[in-house]
Amino acid sequence: MLVTWLSLRLLVGKETHSLAIMKAIGFTADELTCQYIVRVSIIVLLSLSAGLLLSNTLGELLAGALLRSFGSAAFSFKQNIFFAFTAAPLIILVPSLGSALLIKTKIRSITTAQSIRV
Questions:
Q1: Can you give the residue range of the structural domain that contains 96?
Q2: H helices of the chain, where?
């Protein structure tokens, strides 16, 4: 959560000028926050999908090869479907979305007059 929050805070800092213009046009802090929530959601969902796909196809093969190099004779995964497809994604998704919601205070603090000056 901390890494996501810091990354979003840096992104908002970099986009302060654009955000100030959008606020001047009439966007609210809630609408701008919603844009960041959508961005974070897309990235997290794509990452989760790729991780689940790779872990189910190549995970056992790669982990087995690594453990065989350490001297283990046999290795197999015992999958917990509930955890892999429900609990683990929620453990990742909820803090990421929470970080995006915390950014709302930074967006609200942007003043149009100070940010648009050239």
A1: 2-115
A2: 2-14, 16-25, 29-54, 60-69, 81-82, 88-102, 104-108, 112-116
Q: Read off the pLDDT of residues 28-69 as tens digits, 9 standing for 90 and up.
A: 999 999 999 999 999 999 999 999 999 888 888 888 888 888
* Rounded CA separation 41/48 (Å): 10
Q: Which residues contact 48 (CB under 8 A, 6 or more apart)?
A: 89, 92, 93
As a whole number of angstroms, the distance between CA 41 and CA 93 comes to 8
Task: Dump the DSSP string for 68-83.
Answer: HHTT-S-------HHI
- Predicted confidence (pLDDT) per residue in 92-117, tens digit: 999 999 998 899 999 999 888 877 77
Averaged pLDDT, 3-28: 91
Q: Which residue has the tokens 């901390």?
A: 2
Q: How many domains does the chain have?
A: 1
Q: pLDDT for 55-66, tens place per residue? A: 888 888 888 888
Sign of the CA dihedral running 56, 62, 67, 72: positive
Cα 85 to Cα 89: distance, rounded to the nearest angstrom:
6
